[in-house]
Amino acid sequence: MSAGLGRSLLCAVLLLQAGAARANDKTPEATWGFELRGGQYRPVWGNGDITKSEPGMDANGAPTTVTTVIGNERDYFNAYFGSRRPLMFALEIERYIPTPFFGLLGPFVRAGQWKATGKSRVCKDASGRATDCTTEAILKGPTTDGNTTTTLTVYPLAFGVVYRFDVLKKKWEIPLIVYGKGAFDYYLWSISADGKTTTFSNGDKAKGGTAGWEAAAGLSLNLDWIDPRGGNKSAVFLDSNLFVEYARSWFGGMGQKHKADMSDTQLVFGLSFNFQ
Predict the structure, then answer these.
(1) Residue 110 belongs to a domain with what CATH number?
(2) Contact yes or no for 208/260 (Cβ under 8 A)
(3) Is residue 228 helix, strand or coil?
(4) 221 is in which domain, residue-wise?
(5) Which of 111-125, 132-146, 230-244 has the lowest average pLDDT?
(6) Which of 144, 167, 212, 223 satisfies CB 3.0 to 4.6 Å to 240 for a cystine?
(7) Is residue 14 part of a domain?
(8) What b-and-e string marks burial along 62-95, b requiring 16 or more CB atoms within 10 Å of the CB?
(9) How many structural domains is the chain composed of?
(10) Sequence-distant contacts of 72-77: CB under 8 A, at least 24 apart
(11) Half-sphere exposure of 193 (CA within 13 A, CB side)
């Protein structure tokens, strides 16, 4: 009887040890993600007409106000900042949640910075003499660079959801991961001259914020084949990836009028890490 009990206890211990070994051998799952990202950016800013109002006469000779188009908002933006596309840099943190299907799913937050610089404008009349740089004078030109540096600074903020389809990597050891993102964005912006916030012609401070949406699709190249420690519990991170991402943003001000249009299409590159 005691011999049978001893054999039973021994079998139980061996089974527990085998179960523990299987648990220890299980590949750890990522629960956090971190991205360092950068890509060229340039906002639409505005496609509306710029108008001016002057006293005039209607068809019957009665006094009225005449409104005429003097240019486009985009042209006014280009006069200061040109057509360059400076780099936008950002950091993104992702939190993955357990799912009943393959892949990594979870919310993310992102914050970054972008700057465009230009020069103040010096306006001249037809004879080449210096004149006041009104909006109309800047639009009609010609203008030359002044001595004051003008800077447009944008702080892009985003909160969204990401899904990473990593079956190719996990099942067949193909180091490719496709993913998609959707987000609510809010871009804070300001225009400064020599470090001080400027004002528009109506007296308002040249700063604000615009809300919008974003959709993106990307492809990651997993780097575990370079660093064999990838996916190991003892490593600082579980995975590292190089990625390229196509992103499209729409900023209509969420129905609000007179908001700067920060929309753009970007090709973003970066390095990402997954943590347990």
Answers:
(1) 2.40.160.20
(2) yes
(3) coil
(4) 27-45+64-275
(5) 230-244
(6) 223
(7) no
(8) eeeeeeeebbebeebbebbbeeeeeebbbebebe
(9) 1
(10) 72/46, 72/47, 72/48, 72/139, 73/45, 73/46, 73/47, 73/48, 73/49, 74/44, 74/45, 74/46, 74/47, 75/139, 76/50, 76/135, 76/138, 76/139, 77/45, 77/46
(11) 12
> Which helix (H) or strand (E) covers residue 139, if one does?
helix 135-140
Pairing relation of β-strands 239-250 and 207-222?
antiparallel
On whether the CB atoms of residues 150 and 193 are closer than 8 A, the answer is yes
Q: Do the domain assignments include residue 201? A: yes
Question: What tens digit of pLDDT does each residue of 60-79 get?
Answer: 777 877 777 777 778 888 88
**Closest C-alpha to 38, from 244, 226, 254, 259:** 244
Q: What is the pLDDT of residues 21-49, one digit of tens each?
A: 333 445 678 899 999 999 999 999 876 76
Measured CA to CA, the distance from residue 189 to residue 232 in angstroms comes to 42
Cross-strand pairs, 211: 186
pTM of the entire predicted model: 0.80
Q: Is residue 3 part of a domain?
A: no
For residue 66, give Cα distances in angstroms to 7, 135, 192, 207: 103, 18, 33, 30
Rounded to an integer, what distance in angstroms lies between the CA atom of residue 244 and that of residue 117? 27
Confidence band for 235, pLDDT divided at 50, 70 and 90: low
Q: How far is CA 152 from CA 110, 113, 190, 244, 262, in A?
A: 20, 11, 6, 26, 12
Q: How far is CA 185 from the centre of its chain?
A: 8
Residue 59 lies in a domain: no
Residue 253 phi/psi, 5-degree rounding, is 75, 10
